[in-house]
Amino acid sequence: MPPKVSLKKLARKGGLFDGVKSNIHALAIGVKYLVDPQRSTLLYPKEYIEHRPGYRGFIVFVKEKCISCAACSRICPSAAMKMVRVTEIDPKHPDKPRQKQYPVINYQRCIFCGFCVDVCPTEALYHVPFHDIVYENLADMFMTLEQFQVEPQRPAVSEGLPVVYEVDEGKGLVKRRRG
Ligand code: SF4
Ligand code: SF4
């Protein structure tokens, strides 16, 4: 037989009243954001927020700038960035292939902290200001060296239909342009 719950006891402990109070509070917040003209709910992907430069989104690798120091993979706190070995052939010395190492990224693990970009001494890594790309398979989130060098496009931009907003300090979301 289930134990008897005394309403008086619950009320005294604050459990019942606290529960009702926090539910009412949650509902009030929901209503507030429903009617607030500054709410940040958008009809994504037809509408999206364009983040300012410095936003830590997807990362792009510029192989020509890389000196293979591995600082990016060493600093990564989630082991998302790893070095891979490749064999390169210099056209001037085709008989002497060189072993090089370059970073690749696994977006299953990346937390977009940006440490790798900050630590790179040659600016061979940079962020794009978004990370709203959806992958159908987990395996697709593991970039190959070739994929890591291609700057991704936002889905809405590639479909050519966005209405773009940006965040204005004090004013909230401001419509910037219609695509
Ligand atoms: S952004 Fe952070 S978590 Fe992602 S690869 Fe770079 S260092 Fe690692
Ligand atoms: S820190 Fe920069 S230069 Fe060094 S391996 Fe990484 S991308 Fe290349």
Q: What can you tell me about this protein's structure?
A:
With 179 residues, the chain is α+β, with helices and mostly antiparallel strands. It folds into two domains: 1-36; 47-174, Alpha-Beta Plaits, CATH 3.30.70.3270. 26% of the residues lie in helices and 25% in strands. The chain has six helices and seven strands. The protein has helices spanning 7-13, 15-35, 71-75, 115-119, 145-148, 155-159; strands at residues 47-49, 59-61, 81-90, 93-105, 125-127, 163-168, 172-178. The strands form three sheets. Strands 1-6-7 form a three-stranded mixed sheet, with no helix packed on it. Strands 2-5 form a two-stranded antiparallel ribbon. A hairpin with a 3-residue loop joins strand 6 and strand 7 (172-178). The longest helix is centred in the N-terminal third of the chain and has 21 residues, at 15-35. One iron/sulfur cluster binds at residues 75-78, 80-81, 105, 110-116. One iron/sulfur cluster is lined by residues 66-72, 103, 119-120, 122, 124-125.
